[in-house]
Target: LysR family transcriptional regulator
Amino acid sequence: MALLPTNLDMDVLRALVIAMEHGGFARAAERLGRTQSAISLQMKKLEEQVGQPLFRKVGRTVALTDAGDLLLGYARRLVALNDEALSAARGRAMDGTVRVGFPQDLAERWLPAVLGSFHRTHPRIHVEAQVGRGRDLRARVAQGTLDLALAFGEIDGPAAAPPGTAAATLAHLPVAWVAADGFRADPGTDPGTPVPLALLDAPCMFRQHGIERLDGDGRPWRITFTSPSLSGLWAAVEAGLGVTIRTPLGLPDTLTILEPGHGLPTLGSVPLELHRAPSAATPAVDRLHDILSDSLARLLTEAVVQK
Model:
């Protein structure tokens, strides 16, 4: 009789994914409410099931072996499929309408995947999505024309919800100078050389902040390109028309963040907030709120931290 294949333990796979996404066994233990030794035992059990070493020592930390890296990719897919199956079974009868707003930074890559997955698991919930700027999105939540909105808060300011809304701060993101590869901000032998700026149309918080920092440092600048859309701005920066101001969120692979030492002032950080209208208290809104929070947490761990 042929031996039955080994079934991987979903709890162990989830622990592996969380450990790798959040920086080790200790943080995975905190998130899962277990001890670090319990997580270590789970990983040892996983190695026994696979029959290959999955981890290797790197100083005081551990890293994945080639087999571990391969398994991690499958683990992410299996955990995501497990969660999607449960959501579909539990939420198929859920219906209603959710009105939600997003910043342009999330519209191109992240938004289609999240809303597509939500629609597959909750086909009877109608989602009305809007893409806009933070100030407008927050105002629409306060007015009750949006149920939920992801929006940037004030740069280097306290995270505070507008009157009539509730907000959760998901992360504080660095505000950075973004340029094409090879861009030089150093004025060289002529300190009067203006910094070429590619910016979104006013009013724009990032635009205003960058200009104020340059003025504070006494650096001359000139606007070489403006655009109403983030996609147009990215194209101009990629073409070398200027440097812009943004967070690492949604940054195209063709662009780079200028590290300190390029001769431009530091820019601080900005909170990314999830706003909710208090009147939006339906199960459909609750479900999308939770999915947005969880998905953003994964995105910020996988993408922003790597920049």
Summary: Residues 303-307 have pLDDT under 50 and may be disordered. DSSP finds ten helices and twelve strands in the chain. The chain has three domains: 10-89, 95-171+271-304, 176-267. The domain at 10-89 is CATH 1.10.10.10 (Arc Repressor Mutant, subunit A).
